[in-house]
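Saturday, quiet lab. Running sequence design on the C-alpha cells for the scaffold JK sent over.
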C-alpha cells in the first residue's frame, strides 16, 4: 500500500521554515500592535453563505475554489478562503457596529483555496492580515499602506505598490454601465463573457493576452470617479508622495474579491515569479451593512506569508551560527535569556562561563560561529550589546532592543 502523502498544494512547515515562520509572525505582531491592532482567532470553518455574500458569487474564489461541504448536521460550510469575511462576521455578531468608534483587529492563520498549485500558489496557505473599522478618513488608508511598508522594510523586502480607486455606490454603477456597453462589442474569452453579466470590472484583470489587447481602449474607472472618490484618491496619492511612498496607479487593478470600494491596492514583488502579489487589500465601506450590520466604513489588507518567506529566506540562512558570551558576572542572567530568545530563530552557541573578550572570540572562531555578541560591564551600563560579523568583520554596539529585531 502506498504511503499517505500530504494533499496536493498543502505543505508541512517545519525545521528552519517554521523558525522563519514564527520570526515573521512575531515581528509583524509587534509592528501592528503599535498601530493599535488586537489579535483575533476566528474559526477556520464558517457558513458558506458568509463567503458567497462577501467575497461574491462572481469571484473565482467562490465560483471555483472553495473547500465546501455539508457537515453531519446538514450545514453548508466551507474552509475559509480568506480572513476578512470571518472578522466582519465577528464584528457584527458582537455588535461592534452598534457600539461605533474605531476597532482594529489582526489575524494570521491558514486559508484554503482549491486553485491549481504552482510556485507561490498553494491550496492551504497562510495570511497575516489587519482590518480597521470605523474610519472614513483617507489618512487611515495611508496609515495602512505605511504600516505594510514598515513591515516589508523591516524584512528587507523590495516591492512595487499598485494603487487604484474602485469608486463608491454613486460612481461605480454608472461606470459599470459604460464599461458593459464597451465590452459587449469586444471579442473576449469565455470567462470574461460570463463576468460581463456577473461583475464586469473583473473583466479588466483577465490574464488572457488576447483579452488584454481587446481591452486597451476600455473606459477607466479613474476617469469616472465622483467628486468625493476623486478627491479622496488624490489626497491619498498626495499623502503617499509626502511620505516618500512610491506607487503606480493601475486602473485595471480590480482585486479578486467583490467587496471593495474606493481604495484598492496590491504590493507586488518581481523576485518570486508569476505569483507576484505579496499583499493586497483596500476599503470595503459597504460590507458590514451588506452582511446585515450597521453601516461602518472599513479598510484592511492581508499578506501571503509563504510568498514573503520565499523573499526573506535568502537573508536567513541556516548556516548562521551566533555565539553569545558574558564578560561580567552581572551579565550572566541577561546573556542566558538572550541565548534562549535568539534560539527561536537561529542556531546559538554559548559558553556559560564569564570569559575575557579574546577567550570568547577564540571560542566563537573554533566553533565556526558566523557572528559573535558579547556583554561586559560597559554594555550592561548602557543597555547595549557588542556584535561582530565574523565573515565581513563589521562590528558595532547596538541596544538590546535592536539586537532582537535583527536576524542574527
Ligand atoms: P487576496 O489578495 O485574495 O486578499 O490575498 C492576500 C494575499 O494572500 C495575496 O496577496 C497573496 O500574497 C496571498 N495568497 C492568495 N492566494 C494564495 C495562494 N493560493 N497561495 C499562496 N498565497 C496566496 C484577501 O484575501 C483579502 N481578504 C485581503 C483584505 C483584507 N482586504 C481587505 N482586508
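Result came back. Writing it out in full:
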Amino acid at each position: 500500500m502506498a504511503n499517505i502523502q500530504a494533499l496536493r498544494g498543502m505543505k508541512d512547515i517545519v525545521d528552519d521554515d517554521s523558525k522563519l515562520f514564527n520570526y515573521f509572525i512575531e515581528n509583524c505582531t509587534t509592528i501592528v500592535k503599535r498601530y493599535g491592532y488586537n489579535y483575533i482567532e476566528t474559526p477556520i470553518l464558517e457558513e458558506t453563505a458568509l463567503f458567497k455574500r462577501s467575497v461574491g458569487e462572481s469571484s473565482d474564489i467562490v465560483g471555483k475554489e472553495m473547500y465546501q461541504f455539508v457537515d453531519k448536521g446538514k450545514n453548508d460550510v466551507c474552509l475559509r478562503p480568506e480572513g476578512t469575511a470571518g472578522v466582519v462576521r465577528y464584528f457584527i455578531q458582537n455588535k461592534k457596529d452598534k457600539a461605533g468608534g474605531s476597532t482594529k483587529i489582526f489575524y494570521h492563520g491558514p486559508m484554503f483555496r482549491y486553485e491549481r498549485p504552482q510556485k507561490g500558489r498553494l491550496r492551504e496557505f497562510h495570511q497575516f492580515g489587519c482590518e480597521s473599522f470605523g474610519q472614513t478618513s483617507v489618512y487611515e488608508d495611508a496609515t495602512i499602506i505605511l504600516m505594510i511598508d514598515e513591515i516589508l522594510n523591516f524584512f528587507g523586502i523590495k516591492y512595487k505598490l499598485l494603487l487604484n480607486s474602485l469608486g463608491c455606490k454613486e460612481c461605480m454603477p454608472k461606470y459599470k454601465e459604460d464599461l458593459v456597453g464597451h465590452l459587449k462589442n469586444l471579442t473576449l474569452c469565455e470567462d470574461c463573457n460570463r463576468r460581463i453579466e456577473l461583475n464586469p470590472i473583473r473583466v479588466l484583470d483577465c490574464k488572457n493576452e488576447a483579452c488584454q489587447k481587446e481591452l486597451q481602449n476600455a473606459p477607466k474607472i479613474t476617469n469616472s470617479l465622483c467628486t468625493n472618490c476623486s478627491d479622496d484618491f488624490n489626497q491619498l496619492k498626495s499623502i503617499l508622495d509626502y511620505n516618500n511612498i512610491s506607487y503606480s496607479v493601475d486602473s485595471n487593478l480590480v482585486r479578486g474579491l467583490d467587496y471593495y470600494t474606493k481604495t484598492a491596492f496590491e504590493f507586488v514583488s518581481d523576485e518570486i515569479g508569476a505569483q507576484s502579489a505579496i499583499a493586497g487589500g483596500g476599503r470595503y465601506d459597504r460590507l458590514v451593512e451588506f452582511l446585515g450590520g450597521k453601516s461602518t466604513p472599513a479598510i484592511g489588507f492581508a499578506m501571503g506569508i509563504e510568498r514573503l518567506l520565499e523573499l526573506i529566506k535568502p537573508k536567513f540562512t541556516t548556516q548562521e551560527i551566533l555565539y553569545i558570551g558574558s564578560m561580567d558576572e552581572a551579565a550572566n542572567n541577561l546573556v542566558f535569556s538572550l541565548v534562549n530568545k535568539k534560539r527561536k530563530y537561529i542556531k546559538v552557541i554559548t559558553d556559560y562561563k564569564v570569559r575575557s573578550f579574546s577567550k570568547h572570540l577564540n571560542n566563537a572562531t573554533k566553533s565556526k560561529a558566523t557572528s559573535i555578541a558579547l556583554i561586559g560591564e560597559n554594555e550592561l551600563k548602557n543597555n547595549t550589546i557588542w556584535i561582530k560579523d565574523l565573515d565581513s568583520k563589521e562590528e558595532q554596539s547596538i541596544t538590546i532592543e535592536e539586537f532582537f529585531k535583527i536576524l542574527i
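Notes for JK: Residues 15-171+225-315 form a domain with the BirA Bifunctional Protein; domain 2 fold (CATH 3.30.930.10). The chain has a mean pLDDT of 94. Ask whether to fix the surface positions before the next round.
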